[in-house]
Amino acid sequence: MQIDIYTDIFIAGGGPAGTAAALCLLTHTTCKVVVAEASAYDNVRVGEHVDASIFQLLEYAGIPRNAFDNAGIQEGYNSEAAWGSDRLISRHSIYTTEGRSYQLDRQLFDPFLAAQVATHGGQLFPRTKALQYQQTANGHWTILLQHETKGQFHVHAKFLLDATGRQAQVCRHLGIPGNRYDQLTGIGAYLQLDATHTPEQKILLETTPEGWWYYATIPGNRLAVTFFTDSDLIKKHQWQHHYNWNRLLATTKHLLPLTRGSHAYGKPWVKNAFTQITDTASIKNFLATGDAALSFDPISSMGLGFAISSACHAALAANLHLQGDSASSISYRKDLQQHFRNYLQLRASFYKKEQRWTEAPFWERRIKRISDTVSTDSDNI
């Protein structure tokens, strides 16, 4: 028997962007919301550094600050970088924002937000993939979904949001290409310290000729360590293999001593970290949000905060659109374009600070090419 669910807004993707959009709608509008998430929240979700403004965003979405005590949020007490020289400096010298910082354990944080959707009256289906999107003559959507064990069903929605992350799966399904600016990729691992080691709560960045490293302590006496470089360089040098990754780690000056007394569990994971913008103007009753709309270089520290803030804006724009205010979607997309222009300038300023390896492929692409093209690219968004 075919099962049909009717809703106002369907959200593809149950990560922070998708759940924040749902919570914003459920808190501030009368819209019915359905969210589908392909995973069971058991895949690798990389930890993230955020500032205190994250709590203001989530309070707007209906979740008070005191709700997060056991949701994988740990305050960071130190933030350093060896960027531009081998001398450690305060990371505030690289970043433009200051104040208290926090490290998220996404393995706990993401499922917590997902559970809040049901608590606030929405429907969220984990382990559910969208197989087909069809738009009717009036602009509404019929989505064919496949649950891992319960089979297929349809959701009928008036508006569609893509919150599927950097892969922008709905946009790709609808034939909307993303404008990708680089090949940045992260190869990372979680390291477990033994009971005799208590790490200092800190975040550290360190550059090398091949790319740059990110280190953070996370709840559970663990470390998150990620090497960022370009995908073609990874393929050429096979850095995704643990022995090559460890060899690169051994060349670091500041990071290596922090990892002594730890052991990795599981193979290194590989995650896309490229810069990309996707324009959804060609499709009615449809917006992308979070990384599906704009995806940023992690050096900008803009990922999660932007995902949640853009999701709230997209949610409210969708609600206004359903009330007959079509200008709301246009305004949302214009805001994204301006945000991306500002980001391109910020990204260029970060990489210009490292001038030691201007002939190395990774740095040459960012120091020279970014500087040469950022103005042109910004004008053509």
TrEMBL record:
InterPro entries in UniProt: FAD-bd, FAD/NAD-bd_sf, Flavin-dep_Halogenase_NPB
Pfam family, one: FAD_binding_3
GO MF annotation, one: FAD binding
FAD-binding domain residues: 7-328
SUPFAM superfamilies, sorted: FAD/NAD(P)-binding domain
PANTHER family to which the protein is assigned, alphabetical: FAD-BINDING PROTEIN, SLR1998 PROTEIN
Protein name, as recorded: Flavin-dependent dehydrogenase
Organism for this UniProt entry: Chitinophaga niastensis
